[in-house]
Amino acid sequence: MLNIQEKLRIAVLVSKAAFQFIQGASPSDYTVPAEVKAAGFEICGDELGSIVEGHDVKKLKLHGGVNGIAEKLSTSTTSGLSTDNDLLNRRQEIYGINKFAESELRSFWIFVWEALHDMTLMILGMCAFVSLAVGIATEGWPKGAHDGLGIVASILLVVFVTATSDYRQSLQFRDLDKEKKKITIQVTRNGFRQKLSIYDLLPGDIVHLAIGDQVPADGLFISGFSVLIDESSLTGESEPVMASSENPYMLSGTKIQDGSCKMLVTTVGMRTQWGKLMATLSEGGDDETPLQVKLNGVATIIGKIGLAFAVVTFAVLVQGLFSRKCREESHWIWNGDEALELLEYFAVAVTIVVVAVPEGLPLAVTLSLAFAMKKMMNDKALVRHLAACETMGSATTICSDKTGTLTTNHMTVVKSCICMNIKELGQSDKASGFCSDIPAPSVKLLLQSIFNNTGGEVVTSKDGKLEILGTPTESALLEFALSLGGDFQEERQSVKLIKVEPFNSTKKRMGVVVELPEGGLRAHTKGASEIVLAACDKVINSKGEVVDLDEASLNHLKVTIDQFASEALRTLCLAYMDLQNGFSPDNPIPISGYTCIAIVGIKDPVRPGVKESVAVCRSAGITVRMVTGDNINTAKAIARECGILTDDGIAIEGPDFREKKQDELLGLIPKIQVMARSSPLDKHTLVKHLRTTFGEVVAVTGDGTNDAPALHEADIGLAMGIAGTEVAKESADVIILDDNFSTIVTVAKWGRSVYINIQKFVQFQLTVNVVALIVNFSSACLTGSAPLTAVQLLWVNMIMDTLGALALATEPPKDELMKRSPVGRKGNFISNVMWRNILGQSLYQFTVIWYLQAKGKEMFDLEGEDSDLVLNTLIFNAFVFCQAFNEISSREMEQINVFKGILDNFVFVAVLGSTVIFQIIIVEFLGTFANTTPLTSKQWFLSVLIGFVGMPIAAILKIIPV
After folding, report:
1. Residue 437 bears catalytic tag
2. How far is CA 229 from its chain centroid?
3. Using one digit for the tens of pLDDT, what is the confidence trace for 633-659?
4. Sequence-distant contacts of 607-611: CB under 8 A, at least 24 apart
């Protein structure tokens, strides 16, 4: 069966072929529709779609190229759309909105219909139908309908509770899905650059895209540098496509792999190629998580055991009936009562299967995960995949980025080495004080380097203030240049950009070539200090003169870099080089022969609470490792400040790590606490080795464009990303919305809570399973009748499945969870502690119920025709209260105090209260349907007492070591 990726690839190829066929077969004349013309535009949405989607060169030329299309869309490639509401509304009416048609929300009744398709419920429904037919035929209405209607009522109760749970869950996931899709993009409107939701984009908008961004709509390339587009999400092809003036077509859903550009939006929403393709594909829900798969296996095994018990129980009951009839020599004569009795035996057998099959296990997992996802959203963590919660609970190692995760991501230049002199940047009188003893030409050269060789921008906001746009590092440098009295717009307009090579994590540098006002070409480069300094053979001295970089000067600069790094400063080196006139934009920017202008030290303070969070992780058995592209001294200083680097830990650089052999890595990797100057591939390799050695690993990426996809493909336990670039967000399993390492600890706590809650629920459910199975089976074998009827077992099934899942799977996490070792997912899910609690509690409940069955009539002086009914009601009541109190005991598997925080969990209290209220109604008022009879106060007291005694027994069991 074709997967979605393959379907998309085929659909794209077919779409392109169709457009090429149409292009070759149809005339080039184009008539503007009247309504489009009336709205003030010269081109319709379908025509725009055919140009971009079909990569139609002829049509694009026919309409005057990109500038011609912009004119026909009544927009400007420099100032963008007008923000006049009437004009925007008119544009929206003609071209539509940038939203995809969502699949219709399934109604509650659809979930009811799906719940009715449960095989065991369908069999019980058939039993109810036959029971009604035989009962009414033999005993008339309404007496003969009681048993059948009782089963029908129970089935409907199960169906509606299940449907309500599933429906609420679908609403919850829909809300989470909306959160996932909240994406903003930078656009120019009315001449001002601003952030806008992708849903508000319209044809004619000018969108600014940079490395890591997702293309939000179909459009045309206006201008940019070195733009590579990853179209694998559409075509499945891994080779990136170059976008340029010659090939300006850009499709929504693709990603900017390299470079930056401006794009003219042409087609939005369902008219884009992505929109059309998504309309042909049905969106699948989340796959089952590993824990759900594991528990489904457990449920299958238990179900098979239950089926065997049910078959034997039915055989024993039928054999008892036949034996009785043989003794009475009436085996050839059957009446309606005996037919109903046979049907009741079948219903009991089916209901044993219902009780035995713990369908609540996967439900409990889903409920617990959905509950955790919702709560984590409040704690600024957006979980994109259910399985991520589980993985977090089993995490043994966290590999974290430094910038923006451990640190604040608000960078400031605090030190610099210009003209070989180290200077601190003061907080006041910056321009005159800082530049007083630096030659003016050197300052001018520095400003030229910063303002031109940048991926950021300085713009004027609507209120006339200067606003810096770009990454934190770029913003810090631009802020520094502005503080020295520089003018961004003036500098940019005085030179002409010839070539741009954007920064990427492999090269660890970026560069530009500019044409100077006085003529001639100059290359500027900046990046990791060691790398850029290695490319320099000259330096500007204290007099502002360019001199050879001798050994003494080189050592001075290296010592300066190390000194800055030891103070936890991130260092960057800026350099330039005058080029010969023969340089062509097609040539790569030179990689050596530069003159060092300056080295700057950028401070990125450690976030508040990080040190405490790292300590919590350590006490929880989780090792935190820092992986960064920074200089090793900077990395070590920050790691020590965070409490990550300890005396017995190792700090290593990426290049050294790469050279290690496999056998060396095995001994080295467990001790690595810091990896500096690392590439995404280094992080990828480290994570894979850690995962093999220690099990679950959480890798936290910053806004690193290349990190997140590489990690996602590395089969790591879990990828987290801060709310940075769209590629990082798309590739991450969990998005940290507040960029805070402390949030990761919160996610770890919730992950552990999910795992523990499921274990609590399984312990509770298996206890009910064991007791219900053994009681009915043994009673049927020894006495020829089952004390718990089909309707009663259905109610017990409801308590242990849906209600139990709601109560125990929604317990909030406790701080104690972070004081124990990680829960290994490879180990046995049902622990020895759980088996101790299950078997001990089951033994108590079984003993009490058997004693009631054997001696109950004597204890309560029960005589007459109703004695069996009263006794069976008493047994049923005691059994249910055993489960109610056992539910409270199951809140803690090892702690004796099970009441701590119980009132804080509203869901638990509501479920427990509902169980007791419904039990009273069933016993006192639904006798004819549930085969019960009202009990005396003494009998009620004993039922509750039997259930309550289970709690001290559970406490005693917890003292027994396992």
Report:
1. no
2. 25
3. 888 989 999 999 998 899 999 889 888
4. 607/406, 607/407, 607/408, 607/740, 607/741, 607/742, 609/740, 609/741, 609/742, 610/406, 610/642, 610/741, 610/742, 611/641, 611/642, 611/643
Nearest-Å Rg of the Cα atoms of the chain is 36
Q: Is 468 in a helix, a strand, or coil?
A: strand
Q: What is the pLDDT of residues 664-701, one digit of tens each?
A: 888 888 889 999 888 767 777 787 777 777 666 666 66
- Identity of the residue numbered 760: K
What's the pLDDT at 826? 62
What are 414-463's pLDDT values in tens digits?
Answer: 899 998 888 887 654 455 566 777 888 999 999 999 999 987 888 776 67
| Strand segments (E) across 483-606 | 496-501, 509-515, 521-528, 536-540, 546-548, 569-579, 594-603
Respond yes or no on whether the N-terminal peptide bond of residue 934 is cis (omega within 30° of 0): no
Nearest to 575 by CA among 591, 588, 558: 591
Asked whether the beta carbons of 634 and 569 are under 8 A apart, the reply is yes
Question: In residues, how long is the chain?
Answer: 962
Q: Is the pLDDT of residue 190 over 70?
A: yes
Write out the two tokens for 317: 């009951």
Please tell me the distance from the alpha carbon of residue 895 to that of residue 918, in angstroms, as a whole number.
30
- The H or E element containing residue 359 is none
DSSP strand pairing (457-460 vs 381-383): unpaired
Q: Which of 258, 401, 682, 703 is catalytic?
A: 401
DSSP string, 890-941: TT-SS-S---TTGGG-HHHHHHHHHHHHHHHHHHHH-HHHHT-----HHHHH
Q: Are 897 and 833 in contact (CB under 8 A)?
A: no
At 483-523, the pLDDT tens digits run 888 899 899 889 998 888 887 667 788 899 999 988 889 99
CA–CA distances in Å: residue 129 to residues 135, 347, 736: 10, 11, 54
Write down the pLDDT at residue 429. Answer: 45
What integer best gives the mean pLDDT of the chain? 81
For 321, the enclosing helix (H) or strand (E) is helix 290-327
